[in-house]
Amino acid sequence: MALPPHTGTVPEAKAAPQLLILAEPLLQDALASLLSHSDDGAAAYRTAAGFEQLDGAPQLVIWSVDSSVSTGSLLREVALLRERWQPAPLLLLIPADAPYPSEVLLQLPLEGLLQQPEPAQLRDAVATVLEGGRCVALHAQANAGSGYHTQATALGLGQWLLQSGLAQIEMEQRRCEQWLELSQPGGLSRLLLLGRLRELSLARRLLIWLWGPVSLAFPAPLPAADPTAADPKAAPMTAITLRQRTAQGVWQAIQQRLIEAASSGLSNRSGQLLALEGLHDDHQRDLLLALISQLDLLITRLRGDQLRGEELEQRWLSLQPDLRSLALRQVAGEYVQLPQQGSLLAVADTLSSSANLGSEDPELPSAQPMLAALVQAQPLLVEGQLLAPDEPRALLHLEVLISNWLIRTAELISAELLASCSSWPELRRYLLKRELLATRSLERLRNQLNSQQRWGSWFERPVQLYESQRLLYRLESGAVTTVLLTEPRDAELRQLGWVQQLVTLALESRDALAPQVQAFFQRLGDLVVVVLTQVIGRAIGLVGRGILQGMGRSVGRG
Predict the structure, then answer these.
(1) Does residue 92 lie within any of the structural domains?
(2) Domain identity same for 275 and 197
């Protein structure tokens, strides 16, 4: 029996997305060939190399800009393309030698921004943007302009006083030696220069005697070698890939960037002595990854609580001790046991019960804006502008805030681990670096950390509060760096103790008296000029004229 003919309609294959490519003719053909075929030879996207080749509206506009285009022209063309092809997303390709600073590029209303991309990177970016995500990849050259003020590597108090004094003495010695080579043997100037050199040598020894011990009390670590100096390809780059432009997608992108930065090894370029440096390299990485993992669980929990405003921040603060304790247990190992005074003790249980993890770092900023963006996808205030969390500048600002929390929390836990190792010698071999196995080395590190903390609390923090600046730690490319963020801190300034208030009072007095002192010396200088020119100069002129007249009369009589 023959089957009846099939009368149903065969569903049409879904048309491939259409891409509009705007570029130079040769580059345009290359991009069209790359995107129109996939790796297996099957068609991937429909490409149009001009307006006349379009079949309806494009699903994505790709513009490859030349480096000769000025910044103003770039801004105008991007605005015109957005207006012309709305709602199609826009993917901008810029060359490696693009002269545009990152602060300009990150402000462009774009869904994709790639600098000299590889073919695979371009394919992934096109797929991400077509799925509603966002992709940004900028090399180090375009990162010169940043919204943050990177703090230069700072020296400790003792090192700064010692090195600045030695530099001045060395400069004066070189000047004296140059004059000594030009002086004649046996002359008075040569004797004076030799005496000056002996004075400088004595001053050098006195300076080392005075500030040498202080430089040990207030140290600063040497900046780590820059790996990008030998290998330009290893230079850090801004790489952001958002699969979903939601609060969860933003956190996943930041989490992935932080995991990559923490897994590549940690170096200290902050100019500060860190307790985290005392831990073994593996435990440093484990601690940072444990904190990132616990933070992920905490953010997921806060999304389920559906709290807002101050209630959300209070909930965050109440869960911080538990988060630190869990991260500490994860680093120590749940099943690790070590001997102490003849008995085996569980490291995780002993450390979590003895560590004081409830204290707060006063330099941590308010967590409310960060939580509102990560939990509720609320706009974030960045440099005076309210930006959506998926905007590149807002995402980078969120990453800095989370990195600062990550490093400061790791510092608090590391300090407690160092204190536990001080009373538990067997724990040092398990957690600390080999250089800190000696009791003297460990105690010296702890004393240096305490001195740095006291100096920062008494002097550096009041100055930063008065100047409305906040020091943030940033984790990038396996290095801990610092940035200075300017924000109002009047409420914290009013809560300072009397010692810190004296520091701010000294700064205010200096600012108030500086114009008056400057005006006083300026008027004093004007007075000296008047005295020298009008009084002493005229008197000398009159005396000289009298001498000449007397000499003329003597000659006339002769």
Answers:
(1) yes
(2) no
- In terms of domains, do 319 and 446 share one? yes
Q: Are residues 251 and 400 in the same domain?
A: yes
Return the H-helix or E-strand segment holding 113: strand 112-115
Mean pLDDT of the chain: 80
The 3-state DSSP class for residue 268 equals strand
Give, for 46, the enclosing helix (H) or strand (E).
Answer: strand 46-48
Q: Which pLDDT value is given to residue 541?
A: 66
CA distance readout (Å), 332 to 189, 247, 347, 423, 435: 70, 32, 6, 16, 20
In a 13 Å sphere around the CA of 77, the CA atoms on its Cβ side amount to 16
Dump pLDDT digits (tens) for 106-150: 888 888 889 888 888 888 888 888 888 888 888 765 444 444 554
Q: Which 8-state DSSP code applies to residue 234?
A: G
Let me know: does 480 contact 266? Beta carbons within 8 Å: yes
- Say if 542 falls within a structural domain: no
Q: Which domain holds residue 392?
A: 244-493
CA distance 268 to 427: 24
CATH number, domain of 88, equals: 3.40.50.2300
What's the number of domains the chain is made of? 4
Please give the Cα distance from 223 to 153 (Å, whole number): 7
Encode pLDDT of 286-326 as tens digits: 999 999 999 999 999 999 888 888 899 899 999 999 999 99
- For residue 402, what pLDDT band results from cuts at 50, 70 and 90? very high
